[in-house]
Specification:
It is a single chain. With 216 residues, the chain is mainly α. It has one domain: Orthogonal Bundle (MetI-like fold), CATH 1.10.3720.10. Helices cover 82% and strands 0% of the residues. It starts with a helix and ends in a 5-residue tail after the last helix.
Length: 216
């Protein structure tokens, strides 16, 4: 197998890697916002539960969480572990794990908004919902973009952890090709993809940050 063939074979896993990346963001960002708002505004017992939930997710390895999500239904309910559940477990594991990190980032962004703005909005007759979406949320998004960017970049690389559930994404294919051909070239190909993809992510987030300069 020549170099071109190896590159093409490694790139067959790009679709699976992209699916994990996109679906994780689609589910984890809104869930993270819900958790952040709940931790700030919910009644005390709910805040404690959310805080404990987040601490578990941030304090244990993502690899372990993926294993729990996949094998949990079998050990708890004797459920059959199908191929479709494998994919679902990957998405659930990634989404909930990253939601915990985004929740803490969003919480810090929300609490960084001066209370005087909330008081002024209240005097002007804004409801709590209006205050959040018209005043707090836009400024929060601007302030949290840098740490969110760091998490998104980490997510790109973490997609390779799906191998623990025998889910075939790009890095898994790269390792298989490298082992079969006794060469590390496929691993460098995978590394180059992650690097280029992260350059694109960083550029997109940088443009988004500049677009939100209005909210400084």
């Amino acid at each position: 197998m020549n170099v071109t063939q190896m590159i093409l074979q490694v790139l067959t896993g790009v679709g699976s890697t992209m699916m994990i990346f996109v679906l994780t963001l689609v589910f984890s960002l809104p869930l993270g916002l819900i958790l952040a708002v709940g931790r700030i505004n919910a009644i005390s017992p709910v805040q404690v539960v959310i805080k404990f939930f987040i601490s578990i997710l941030r304090g244990t390895p993502l690899m372990l969480q993926l294993i729990v999500w996949f094998y949990g239904p079998y050990y708890l309910f004797g459920a059959t572990l199908s191929a479709s559940w494998r994919v679902l477990a990957v998405i659930i594991g990634f989404s909930i794990n990253y939601a915990a990190y985004f929740a803490e980032i969003f919480r810090s962004g929300i609490q960084s908004i001066p209370s005087g703005q909330h008081e002024a909005a209240f005097i002007l007759g804004y409801s709590k919902t209006q205050m959040f979406f018209k005043i707090t949320f836009p400024q929060m998004v601007k302030r949290v973009l840098p740490p969110v960017t760091n998490e998104v970049i980490t997510l790109v690389k973490d997609t390779s952890l799906a191998f623990v559930l025998a889910y075939t994404e790009m890095f898994t294919i790269a390792k298989q090709v490298a082992a079969a051909q006794t060469t590390i070239i496929p691993l460098f190909v995978a590394g180059a993809f992650y690097y280029i993809f992260n350059l694109v992510v960083a550029a997109v987030m940088s443009r988004a940050e500049k677009a939100l300069d209005y909210f400084e």
